[in-house]
Amino acid sequence: xxxxxxxxxxxxxxxxxxxxxxxxxxxxxxxxxxxxxxxxxxxxxxxxxxxxxxxxxxxxxxxxxxxxxxxxxxxxxxxxxxxxxxxxxxxxxxxxxxxxxxxxxxxxxxxxxxxxxxxxxxxxxxxxxxxxxxxxxxxxxxxxxxxxxxxxxxxxxxxxxxxxxx
Length: 166
Known about the structure:
Blueprint: H1 12-19, H2 21-45, H3 65-81, H4 85-104, H5 111-114, H6 117-132, H7 139-146, H8 151-158
Helix pairs in contact: 2-3, 2-6, 3-4, 4-6
């Protein structure tokens, strides 16, 4: 049994857009990382409105707010740069899952009711990057090319259809 792979583009527009997929993914990765890093910087340094828009900062060493802010800042910068993207995105996604289930979900069931929309969106967005990889223009690609494995080989390896055997 084989897992379905992405269908071939049926129109010239779809074919053209498919060629830009790595760059669209790179833009998605960069914006996600930048926003996540800004969220951490706000909590750590009181910039951009501070923690929760109050102008305050997370108290150094306070669990979990300070640690979450450090993960947000460091993970966001790494994701934006495309450096250790999958690992950084996995850790960051996990921190947002923790934030949602420990901080927000006890308040109410739905994210709209408990204020956890941002945590849920960051969690799933970062988890998507774990599976898609960084796309084009990532430091990970430069490191792969430097090691001599080449980005074309790495890309071919990443886009190979998944097959399952019974």
